[in-house]
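User: What would this chain look like folded?
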Amino acid sequence: MTVPSPGLRLIPAVVTVTLGGVISLQSRANGELSRDLGSGFAPALLTMVTGLALLLVVLAGHRRSRLGLVAALAGVRGGRLPWWILTGGVFGALFLVVQSVAVPLVGVAVFSVGVVAGQTTGSLLADRAGLSPSGVKPISPNRVVAALLAVIAVGLAISNRLESASGVAVFAILAFVAGVLIAPQQSANGRVAIAAGSPFSAATVNFAGGAVVLSIVVAAGWALGAIRITDPVAAPWWAYLGGVLGLCVVAGAAWVVPMVGVLLFSLLSVFGQLAGALLLDVFLPTADTSVGWQVVAGVVLTLAAVIIAAVPRRARVSGR
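Assistant: Here's the prediction, encoded as structure tokens.
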């Protein structure tokens, strides 16, 4: 097999970092839409519905993904696969709601730090419970240290805003919880992808589940008067791109992961997400966003936590 040149090997890495930045853009888009619509549930539902519609178009032209989706669903009905692998969209829906509500209040950077801290912690629990396709993994000292460091990073990132923004600590904690929910979401979607042989099949299950859950919640909230759409015309056009951006991440990951591996993809995408969040909060801040040294230090500590958590796995992979 021909070894690609350094320039060609750099392309997947650059694409992965860019995908991390796209995640930050999605956070800003959903946050902006939430501010104008007056509800975090409406942007989350729009993201799921838009993403699902685009994925149905993809499946219509991709026979392998269609057959894989049918095979995965048949496996669940026949008891060969656990039912909970179809619940990824539920966790994704909860994440989108927290994202839409929290970003306008705490900014993309603080939200991203909270999510990564929660994701590090959630991965410990998911690996220990054996939710991921790779099975049960022990909780190593390095990963415990990484999780603690990530939690400290969240506290540091919001320390200068505890008095300046009402409820910032609550939303930072919610961002942490949303990050924890990413672990079971990825575990469920990963199992569907393996069973179906296509990441697009897994993404379709994820977006469909989220769309159903959020449709029920929004319909019930509307009927009870708890959810009202205030001013959709006021939102800029880019605020409606959450579903498109989410699908870009899924499609990009499907292309990049086979070349760079899951571990390197995770590290590079997190770096892109945090760097993109900082750039957005510096150059395109929301009304309540402030970026001090605490946020920058929190981002650096979070990146260090992700690297520490990945060191044992990297060593094992390189030793094979």
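Residues 21-318 form one domain. If you want, I can go into more detail on any region.
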